[in-house]
Amino acid sequence: MDHFATIVADVHLTKPEALAVIAATLDAEVVGAHTAHAFVALPHGGRVEVEIPKFGEAPPLAVDVYDSRGDAEALAAAQRLLELLAGTAGWPVHHLHE
User: Fold this and answer.
1) Given phi > 0 = left and psi -120 to 50 = alpha, else beta, which region is 86?
2) For residues 51 and 77, what is the distance between their CA atoms, to the nearest angstrom?
3) What is the rounded distance in angstroms from the CA atom of residue 58 to the CA atom of residue 12?
4) What number of CA atoms fall less than 13 Å from residue 90's CA on the CB side?
5) What are the pLDDT digits (tens) for 10-46?
6) pTM (2 d.p.)
7) Region of residue 64 (phi > 0: left; psi between -120 and 50: alpha; otherwise: beta)
């Protein structure tokens, strides 16, 4: 079972663009680029997926950080990613959902 935490960021990017920024920030690759199921793999075996707003929904962008080890590990990985995206990529990050 995968556990996850969600980062909410006020950025206006396509899913491929957001995944590319995340991959560059983590010095990783986008797995399955140009597919509907693209993600960025994390070193511990987790992954990062991006959900974009649907028609009629306002931004922000939702970045889901998955970890099969547990809720605490997913939250910790998401917090690290949040800090990197805010500091390195300059993303205005609203908050983190558990």
Assistant:
1) alpha
2) 18
3) 10
4) 1
5) 888 889 999 999 999 999 999 999 898 999 999 888 9
6) 0.89
7) beta
